[in-house]
Design goal:
Blueprint (H helix, E strand, L loop, with lengths): L2 H6 L6 E5 L3 H12 L5 E6 L34 E5 L3 E5 L4 E4 L2 E4 L2 E4 L3 E3 L11 E2 L4 H12 L4 E4 L3 H12 L4 E4 L12 H14 L2 E3 L4 E5 L2 E4 L4 E3 L2 E4 L3 E3 L17 E2 L11 E3 L4 E5 L4 E4 L3 H20 L11 E6 L2 E7 L6 E5 L7 E7 L2 E8 L2 H13 L5 H4 L14
Parallel strand pairs: 1-2, 1-7, 2-3, 7-19, 9-16, 10-11, 10-16, 11-12, 18-20
Antiparallel strand pairs: 4-5, 5-6, 8-17, 13-14, 14-15, 20-21, 22-23, 23-26, 24-25, 25-26
Helix pairs in contact: 2-6
Length: 415
C-alpha cells in the first residue's frame, strides 16, 4: 500500500472483476494492464467462445470469408484471468460479491460491461426459421441460410437490418425488408436525411416495404398486418437492442428508463466500487447537455480507458477523469460507407454538403453556430475533420459549410 493510500484510508484494490467479454469488457481488462494496474484482473463472459469483435459478424462470418473475429489479445501474457461460458446471476454490492451459476465471485472493484441484447419480435420466440444477429452463434446459424440462397425477410430497416440485407444480397438471396415506420433509419435520422437512402435498397435488388408491420410468422411465410404474405425461408429480426441488465434486478444499482445502468461522468454507478461501460450504460454529456446511451463500437472502445484510469486514480488520489466523447460509428451498406459523428436533436439546424442523389455527400447539424454532428456518405475526410471540430466546439460559417468542394475545417468562423 502506498503512503498516499494509507493517508487517505483507502483500501488497496487487489482484484478487479469485469462482467462481459465483448469489446468494452476486454478493453477494460487490457487498459488496466496497459495503465499499470498490478492486481488480479478477472474477465467473465457468458459465451464459451474466445472473446471476439462483433462488427464483422454481418459481413465476413456471414459470407463465409472468415471463421470468426477473436480479439488479438494474449490474455495469458497480460495475466488476465478468463472465465468463459459463465453466467452471472446477480450482484450484492454490500458484500462485494457476484453470484454466478458456479458460485460467488468476490471483487474489490466491479466493472459492468454486459452490452446489449437484441429485441425479439413478439410472438416469435422459439419459432423455427426466425433469427437474431448479435452473437457468433447467431452468425453461424445464418451462414448456411445465405449459402443456400433462401428467400429472406428482414424485419427492421435500421443499421443492423441494412447491413444484413447487404450481406444477403451479396450472397444472392432474394431480400424483402419490412419496416413499420415510413422510412429506413427512422429512429436515428430525420426524414429528409433518410429519404435518399430509400433508393439504396432497390438499387441493390432488395425490396423495402415501409408502413408494414408483421402480424405473425408461419412456416415459410411472414404475414403482414394488411394480410400480405411474404415468402420467407428465413426471417432476420433487427428492431433494436436493449441493455443487458436484467440480472441487476434487486441489486440496488440505479437503472434508467431504457434499463441501462446510470453511470456518472466518471462512469461510476450508484453502488460503491462499481463502474459501468459500453452499451449497458448511459452517461451525462457536458458537451450536449443531456444523458447519452450510445450503442456503438467506438463507445465500447473509448470508455474502458476512462474506467481503468479512474480505478487506478482512486488509489493514488488523482482527480477522476471525465468521460464525454464525441460519439462515432460507421456502417457499410449497399456499397456505401456511412459514418456519423456527434449527437443531434430536432432543434439543431441541418445543412447539406453535396447532392444526396450522388455517391458522396454529407449532412451537418449546427447549434448556436457550433457543429454538433455530421453524417458522411462516402466522404471520410469530412468525418475525420468533423470529429475534431465537434471536440473543439468550433463555430462554423454556414455558407462555407454548404460548399462540398471546401474542406470542412476551412469553413470555421469566428465566435
Amino acid at each position: 500500500m502506498s503512503e498516499q493510500t494509507q493517508e487517505r484510508g483507502v483500501s488497496p484494490v487487489r482484484r478487479v472483476v469485469v462482467v462481459g467479454a465483448g469489446m468494452a469488457g476486454v478493453q477494460t481488462a487490457v487498459a488496466l494492464r496497459e495503465q499499470g494496474f498490478p492486481g488480479a484482473v478477472v474477465l467473465i463472459g457468458a459465451e464459451p467462445h474466445q472473446p471476439y469483435d462483433r462488427p464483422p459478424l454481418s459481413k465476413a462470418v456471414l459470407l463465409g470469408t472468415a471463421e470468426g473475429s477473436a480479439f488479438d489479445v494474449d490474455f495469458e501474457a497480460l495475466d488476465i484471468e478468463l472465465h468463459l461460458g459463465r453466467e452471472v446471476l446477480g450482484v450484492r454490492p454490500g458484500d462485494h460479491e457476484l453470484d454466478t451459476a458456479e458460485g460467488p465471485v468476490p471483487y474489490d472493484v466491479l466493472v459492468l460491461a454486459t452490452g446489449a441484447e437484441p429485441i425479439r419480435l413478439p410472438g416469435t420466440e422459439g419459432v423455427r426459421g426466425v433469427h437474431l444477429l448479435r452473437t457468433l452463434d447467431d452468425a453461424e446459424r445464418l451462414r448456411p441460410v445465405l449459402a443456400d440462397q433462401h428467400d429472406i425477410v428482414v424485419v427492421g430497416a435500421g443499421w443492423i437490418g441494412a447491413e444484413f440485407a447487404t450481406a444477403a444480397r451479396e450472397a444472392g438471396c432474394a431480400v424483402t425488408v419490412v419496416e413499420a415506420a415510413d422510412r429506413p433509419l427512422a429512429g436515428a435520422l430525420p426524414a429528409e436525411v433518410a429519404a435518399p437512402m430509400t433508393s439504396w435498397y432497390a438499387d441493390s435488388g432488395a425490396e423495402l416495404r415501409t408502413h408494414a408491420r408483421v402480424r405473425h410468422v408461419e412456416p415459410g411465410e411472414v404475414v403482414l398486418d394488411d394480410g400480405t404474405r411474404l415468402a420467407a425461408g428465413a426471417v432476420v429480426v433487427g428492431i433494436g437492442a436493449r441493455p443487458a441488465t436484467a440480472w441487476l434486478a434487486g441489486s440496488g444499482i440505479e437503472l434508467g428508463e431504457h434499463g441501462e445502468v446510470l453511470a456518472d461522468a466518471h462512469l461510476r454507478t450508484s453502488a460503491p466500487d462499481v463502474y459501468a461501460v459500453g452499451d449497458c450504460a448511459s452517461f451525462p454529456s457536458g458537451r450536449y447537455g443531456e444523458r447519452l446511451l450510445v450503442h456503438h463500437w467506438d463507445n465500447a472502445l473509448q470508455g474502458p480507458r476512462t474506467v481503468a484510469e479512474n480505478i487506478i486514480g482512486a488509489q493514488t488520489g488523482e482527480a477522476p477523469a471525465v468521460y464525454d466523447p464525441v460519439p462515432y460509428f460507421w456502417s457499410e451498406q449497399f456499397g456505401r460507407f456511412v459514418q456519423f459523428a456527434g449527437h443531434h436533436t430536432s432543434a439543431d439546424t441541418l445543412l447539406w454538403r453535396g447532392d444526396p442523389s450522388g455517391p458522396a455527400w454529407s449532412v451537418c447539424w449546427l447549434r448556436e453556430g457550433r457543429l454538433t454532428a455530421l453524417l458522411a456518405v462516402g466522404r471520410p475526410r469530412d468525418l475525420a475533420q468533423a470529429r475534431k471540430l465537434i471536440e473543439a466546439g468550433a463555430h462554423m460559417n454556414p455558407e462555407l459549410l454548404k460548399d462540398p468542394s471546401r474542406p470542412l475545417k476551412a469553413a470555421t468562423a469566428a465566435p
